[in-house]
Design a protein that fits this description.
By secondary structure, this protein is an alpha+beta fold. It has one domain (5-148): Bifunctional nuclease domain. 30% of the residues lie in helices and 38% in strands. It has helices spanning 41-51, 61-71, 113-123, 131-136, 143-148, and strands at 5-13, 20-27, 34-40, 75-86, 91-100, 106-111, 127-130. It has a seven-stranded mixed beta sheet with strand order 3-2-1-7-4-5-6.
Amino acid sequence: MDVMLVEMELREILRGSDPGIPIVLVEKGGRHRQFPVVIGQYEAIVLENAVHHEVLERPLTHDLILNVVHGLGGKIRRVIVDKLVESTFNGTFHGKLDIEQADHSSVWIDSRPSDAIILATKLGIPIFVEEQVLHQVHAEPTEEDEDVE
């Protein structure tokens, strides 16, 4: 079975009073389907900092991850949301970091999508979602695209 990846980009971070903060990814090109993900408040703050290219005096956890990967001669090439595991009351997304090691071999590292999206935003690298995951969440085109069609 071939895996089809759809490139996405961060559209918005929706602030509210709930403990979980929804973020919205939107498809680049193509049908512009929306893909919502709920992240924690801490992750939302770090993501907002990454969007605004804010650098703190001391490294936070995501900066530490980047420093370790770079210190070992690697680089994160892309991030992928590759699975939705459904349970009785909700679902959990799973992600992966595609890391090129110093010897140019690849290694895939399991990651929470929120962390992967933060790293992708900090680095300006692509975010992909597997087509099957988009089908599972019934991703639909954005309202602007529906007006054009």
